[in-house]
Amino acid sequence: MTEFLTVDGGQLAYEVAGEGPLIVLAHGMGDGRKAFRHLTPLLVEAGYRVAALDIRGHGESSAEWPSYTRTDVAGDIAALVRHLGGPAVVVGHSFSGGAATIVAARHPELISAVVELGPFTRAQKVDVGGLLRNASHRRGMLRLMGAALFKSVGLWKSYLDVAYPGVKPADYDPYVAALEADLRRPGRMAVVATMGQSAPIDAGERLSGVRSPVLIVMGAQDPDWADPVAEANGIVAGMAPGVGSVAVIEGAGHYPHAQYPAEVARAILGFLKG
Question: What domains lie within the chain, and their CATH numbers?
Fold first, then answer.
């Protein structure tokens, strides 16, 4: 059942399942809380109360907000954790991976641990050599940049096809059809474009201040980077020693939690038990 939390600037939609310690799931840009539809039941079965959030400008959350930075999303996550009674484990994908870094650094009292899935947490540099060497990276980046530049739902769908290499969820086609319908609502692709052009400088500046344990989960075939494992290791290197660790999901692209939910759940649960 959808619930709503009013914060400064709009309303946030979320849903909660299960009982136990709190986990908050925050999806990436151009998606919605149903991105975690296959992961949530596994976490609930393991004994957690799981809240999946539609980040600002997405899904059933308000469409129009003053701004759409990772710092803004971090504030929304913090508000939801307070509302539900923290502390919480925050799981952030892609854009929201950077937001999870920020909320952990700014509000350590609210955060027990952080999991970042394919996160954009550091300022990116164009890797010309990587674009030339890695065809999947080249195809993904061209479509991703085109979707942001032209506010194109069609290019976003084409990017998703690259971002889900190999195995796709059994419900991939109807899921993407529903996502397309949502993104064609007035103003939704403008939000995606704004977020896509937002450099994660605010998140990178907070890396060294994170003290909660952090797990970076990266798909080995993630087309958003020429070398996704090197990106994950670079994020961990920006943290204090012993704070961060990396799990690599073989065969996965930018959406490991949708392609390989059992493997991602196993990595998350092992991390939390540790």
Answer: 3-126+197-273 (3.40.50.1820)
Confidence at residue 67, expressed as pLDDT on a 0 to 100 scale: 95
Q: What is the pLDDT of residue 33?
A: 98
Q: pLDDT digits over 69-90, tens only?
A: 999 999 999 999 999 998 999 9
Per-residue pLDDT of 91-108, as tens digits, reads 999 999 999 999 999 999
DSSP-assigned states of every residue in the chain? --EEEEETTEEEEEEEE-SSSEEEEE--TT--GGGGTTTHHHHHHTT-EEEEEE-TTSTTS-S--S---HHHHHHHHHHHHHHH-S-EEEEEETHHHHHHHHHHHH-GGGEEEEEEES---S-----HHHHHH-HHHHHHHHHHHHHHHHT-HHHHHHHHHHHS-S---TTHHHHHHHHHHHHTSTTHHHHHHHHHT--THHHHTTGGG--S-EEEEEETT-TTSSSHHHHHHHHHHTSPTTTEEEEEETT--S-HHHH-HHHHHHHHHHHHH-
